[in-house]
Amino acid sequence: MRPGRAFLVTKRIFWSLRHDPRTIALMCFAPILAMCIFGIAFSGNIENVKVIVINRDQGAYVPASNMTIRISDLIIDNMDEKKLNIHHMTDENEAIGAVKDGKYSSIIIFPEDFSRSVVNASQGGGEQAVLRIRSDQSQVNVATEIVQTVTNAMLKTLGDRGMKTPVAMDVSDPIYGKGARFIDMFVPGIMGFVVFLLTTLLTLISFVGERTRGTLTRLFANGLTEGEIVTGYAIAFGMVGMVQVGILLTVAILLFDIMVVGNPLIAFLIASLLAVVSVSLGILLSSLAQRESQAIQFFPIIILPVFLLAGIFWPREAMPLWLRPLSYLIPVTYAVDALRSVLIRGWGLADIWVQLLALVGFAAIFLTGAVYMLKFMRGR
Amino acid sequence: MKAIEVNGLSKSYGPIIAVSGLDLHVDEGEIFGLLGPNGCGKTTAIKMLLGLVRPDSGSAKVLGRKAGSKGSLENVGYMPQETALYEELTVKENLKLFAGINGLSGNEYRKREDEVLDLVNLGERRDSILSTLSGGQRHRVSLAVSMVHAPRLLFLDEPTVGVDPPLRANFWRTFRKMRDRGLTIIMTTHYMDEAVNCDLIAMMREGRIIAQGSPSEVMSRSKAGNLEDAFLKLSREEVKV
Ligand SMILES: Nc1ncnc2c1ncn2[C@@H]1O[C@H](COP(=O)(O)OP(=O)(O)OP(=O)(O)O)[C@@H](O)[C@H]1O
Ligand SMILES: [Mg+2]
Predict the structure, then answer these.
(1) Ligand 1, residues B9, B11, B13: which to mutate, most atoms within 8 A of Cβ?
(2) CATH number of domain containing A83
(3) Do the domain assignments include residue A43?
(4) What is the pLDDT at residue B59?
(5) What is the ipTM of this complex?
(6) For chain A, how big is the Rg over CA atoms in Å?
């Protein structure tokens, strides 16, 4: 192995890129686009849900303040306006029809004795107050969000009125990720996804090209070794991976104001390791394709398992138990884990050594595999 | 020293015998022509000498080193049958890349760049993207690339395909000049008027050599008036001359 010759392969890749603005654009804008699309679409913020409120509450007389109050009104006032877009109705059947027509997602019904029951219950007697919510449960997320919003409003109202619920929960002081939103969790995921995907696919395509155009043979005929070629590719795409992370971080900070607790330099290290793994995988896969058009057929096979199993969009805890071990066979899993730990938890190198070791292991195995595959293919 | 020594070299692809029991000895400082119909094994033979294809049996030495061994490609140049260059790079970048791989850089390289581009008459086009050149022009770049590092032994697989006659004549002047300086050229061609210019030729058929010698020797031994006839005669009947 002569490093100088490997570096010529790297140089050649950059020369080719310089003459190919479309690929450069793909490498720069695809990450941004992916982040924006997924970031906004999956942001998890369910907003402006149209709901109907039927308020039959007749209120309760409170001796202390010598007046009749309707607790239901206070609860409705406390409902998050951004989340729920409230319309009032009186007829339940009409409301049901409106939900069935798809115009509204839910009906929230306060019964006649609502305030009375609340007051009685707070004094330790009587029946429990019952608030009915009838949702279009076919939209599970929306229905859950409605219940959550109403619950929050209810707890706040009761708290304001000094009616203590027996149990309270305090989530204001998390160990990690104080103030984290979905996008904060998602950006490290999309980083791993984009670096892996673009590197693997670009390497796959350009390597199939090297083979079909005969340049690979010509490199060999000029004394270049398999190791030098693979190293050259790995260096080039390792650098490209770092640039992509740089772009993603910049845009994520400027556009989405994401949380960066840890040292972003470690993110570059993780990305370049992942890129090296991806390069080797691309080269390995290129041996299975004779033409570019065949290589394209691999795309879904590469994308799907990573998309589903690497913990990019949802945590591994959301996967069926029997599927979880599979996620450990995917290098992106470790990269995303490490990126998240660094960016959100603020972990340092010492805390993510397991993930780094796994990535280095994958890189070593895949690189060796790629070199031997090339050696094997050469004599044919 | 012998430029190449080949003994009993064979290679099959499944049922297809590409090269069978090839024996070939070429001295340094010769222009050696490998002739024969399509599919007779010329390219496969060259690739085995370069270590690009693993032979099934037999042995081959290139400039005294075992073919395919480490360092056996030093001082060797190769122009493949297909263009095999980076189409998206400029002429110069292609040259520079392969010169660099062969350890040539700086002023030394710049001198060679001018020399080889002069030879293929593409000095003006050095900054053109390869894919914008014509087929023949691309082929000429490929030739330039194969000798940019001034090798001692040059394998040329159909170097003159698609090259216009004046330029082809120019090529041959250069080939002879290089030969006179001690360079060995092993080339394949389908043009018999060109093969006559070789110092030695070998006729191949079905993976083996059926006639070998100087062009005039091969002509007289196959009792043909010109090389074209000799070629037709030899490729039709299994005669050993
Ligand atoms: N990689 C391969 N796989 C299968 N068969 C091959 C392979 N390479 C060559 N062959 C076969 O070996 C035989 C010799 O091929 P080769 O390319 O050496 O011929 P050639 O003399 O160079 O022909 P041409 O004049 O057309 O260039 C042919 O029958 C060809 O089909
Ligand atoms: Mg051929």
Answers:
(1) B13
(2) 3.40.1710.10
(3) no
(4) 94
(5) 0.94
(6) 29
